[in-house]
Model the fold of this input.
Amino acid sequence: MAIYERHEPEKTLLYKAIARHWPGIVRDYAERDVRIAPHVVSEFDRYLRCGILQHGFLLLTCPFCDEERIVAWSCKCRGFCSPCGSRRMAQKALRLEKEVWPEADARQWVLTFPMQVRRWLAHSSDLLSAVNRLVTDEISKFYIARTPDLDDEARASDPATGGITFIQRFNSALALSTHLHLVFMDGVWARHEGEHRFFAYPEMTTQDVMDVLFGIERRLERLFRRKGLIRGQGADVEEVPQEAVPAPFVPRQPKAYRRKGGFKTPYWDDIDRNVMTEMGYCNATYKWLSLHAGVYVLGDDREGLSTLLRYTSRSAVSPSRLSYVNPDEPETSHIRLALKRAWSDGTRELEFSQVDMVERLAALVPEPWSNLTRYHGIFAPGHAWRDFIVPGRRHLPRTMSMETEMREATVGDDQSTTKKKSASGRAPAEYWIPWAEMLSITFGLHPEICTCGAKMGVTSVVTETVGIQEMMKKMGLAPMPPPRGRSAVPAGELDYMFED
Done:
């Protein structure tokens, strides 16, 4: 019997750190009478069950060679689970590149906020939505007003653009730092000679980015004043203190890390926050707001577009960048986090205690029903031009009959300009990729394909404790799940030790 191990969670450094310390963190916060949001507790509980066979699995059997395979359940968490985040990243990037993004240039706009504003955005979904609408509206107005190739006919057709916002709640140090990655079409769509045509923006300059950033800052200030977050004028400006903003989880030591590589004076100390400052190509900062738009992809570079979409929709934690400072003592050793890029002061890695690492991850868990990917302009579901510009689904659902497939394949050219609608009435770009196919794309192994090449079928869904323990003993595995916390294993149970 084969075991389909997607990521072997009981053997990963991050899983072991969370399993050791999260129960103790919950007890410590309860003793201090500090409330942890239920969705944060649920996120950790689901993560500690993710990929663990002792919590249930699917049993697949090959109809030809009778080979059996078991596949564990996944948690589908959005906070810090790397395997589930990788699957979601691959699925989202593949669908957007194949079924949503047209043959149009793409540009990434990255907007980061001052420290105080990041906290407001992290704990207020309504404020985050308002800020996101404001930013996308400002970028859209810039493209429509500044694209030079639009003639009178195109401007009279009410030109439009579109973008996708990826909300990221983390930074390179795994701290709560809400910021926006906006992938916009680098140009404008308009009606020209009876057809929808894309007018590309000729060349983005740093001055263009400064103009957009200036407009965003003015509108953000007005928004924060209406919300009561900023009071006063000039030198008497006051902001709502951080303590007045409720948080689902507040780490006891929000900056509990040590720098490796030397510390220098941050470059922020040499910048006047009230002066628009050029930080590089298409990169500007103003009043602690930072806007970068130097990354773009041509419309025919689909591989580059897919890479950009995968980057913007990635998860917070990359296991390849985590390691023990002292591998000989894994239970007490600090955790080293290697940075993807060196900081301005030369730091290339950080060190955390295991408890501090777990608490930082808890602060990154998003609120339930809060969308982290949002569509604007032409990509919005209700836009009148969406069905004419968005490619739509490229492959047919497996449940479609052969007659329907042949009928759709023989549709005449006279019907090619009609609006494309799926049989279920959903938007064309919302086609779901089967779980087995998605796992194959993400992890390189198809769970439904047997070693003989035949397709395996699900024979049973094992969720009861008795059935799970019998199957575990049959395979020579521990019948009990990995331990949580530092408590000793009760006598009589089969020990489930972590192997480092």
User: Anything to note?
Assistant: Residues 173 and 350 are 8 Å apart (CA to CA). The longest strand covers residues 176-185.
